[in-house]
Amino acid sequence: MAAAVRCFLMVAVGLAPLLAGAAGGKLSTRFYDSKCPSLQSVVRSATAQAVAAEPRMGASILRLFFHDCFVNGCDASILLDDTASFTGEKNAGPNANSVRGYDVIDAIKAQVEASCSGVVSCADIVALAARDSVNLLGGPTWTVQLGRRDALNASQSAANSNLPGPGSSLATLITMFGNKGLSPRDMTALSGAHTIGHARCTTFHDRIYNDANINASFAALRQQTCPQSSGTGGDATLAPIDVSTPTWFDTTYFENLANKQGLFHSDQELYNGGSQDVLVRVYMRNPDIFALDFAKAMGKMGSLMPSADTPTEIRLDCKKIN
After folding, report:
1. How many CA atoms lie within 13 A of 163 on its CB side?
2. Is 87 helix (H, G, I), strand (E, B) or coil?
3. Where does Ca(2+) 1 bind (predicted)?
4. Which of 134, 148, 177, 261 could form an S-S bond across to 182 if both were Cys, CB 3.0 to 4.6 Å?
């Protein structure tokens, strides 16, 4: 296993050929070469500082990117604060208690602005920070296409309807990812992001008390800090999504699924006698294949763009429009 992990860590994927022409050719690996040549080193350094201070933050930034891209494209709409006349996405159901790291993106943006004022979008910063978070926690790296712009609006209703929940069935997951142009293989690879991070008791309560396809010892372990009766003080208690290595990006998430130790109902749906069982076993035994597929799927997800008529800008402050 040690040799497999070492090999996994060395995977690097160049996605320029894969995404050529994505989003109408607007994205480029060299978009900031002349306008902000220090961008990637600034983002990497700031992300590394945040992850070193709190390894869980790497998973949070990755989740933030996913929740942004699945709602009208990767446009940093999730970063906008509510105002007296504007309701953003931060307080949508899937985001309110599960998405964090906004302060880290703000800190990175401030450092980028100090180097290259008014040039780099918040959306591109999130994409780079998500890539770097994965790699800093032991996962693969890949080339990020750049040139995104920041939305002037957000959609709480789209955030409430476009993001799959922890109780989703396999059919629902396939459909919701398919709606974004992502294949079932992409979906299963991207689900591997749950090899890092933590979740609140409320998101897996039904799973550990009501699901039949769950390891009894694992259910008992999670029940110790997630009481059966809600409102008893444990609803917000955190548990690692990957029971084995929650701060290391590896393939134990898939091993957990094979052992019926998926924390979410939606996780275990990937290995429950359905169409993704074989792929879960492939990833479990072949870290390099998972790394390659994950990087490719992240590139595809990162190419999701808002519609052509969406007004955009380069925000100076990620929390508000200029």
Report:
1. 28
2. coil
3. 68, 71, 73, 75, 77, 89
4. 177
| Binding annotation for Ca(2+) | 68, 71, 73, 75, 77, 89, 195, 242, 245, 250
What does the pLDDT read at residue 26? 81
- Confidence band, pLDDT 50/70/90 cuts, at residue 239: very high
Task: Report if pTM > 0.70.
Answer: yes
Q: Which residues are annotated as a binding site for heme b?
A: 194
Domains, the chain: 23-164+303-313 (1.10.520.10)
Asked if 205 is an active-site residue, the reply is no
The pLDDT tens digits for 172-202 are: 999 999 999 999 999 999 999 999 999 999 9
Query: Under a CB-based contact definition with an 8 Å cutoff, are residues 298 and 142 in contact?
Result: yes
Q: Are 224 and 234 in contact (CB under 8 A)?
A: no
CA dihedral 257, 258, 260, 266 (to 10 degrees): 30
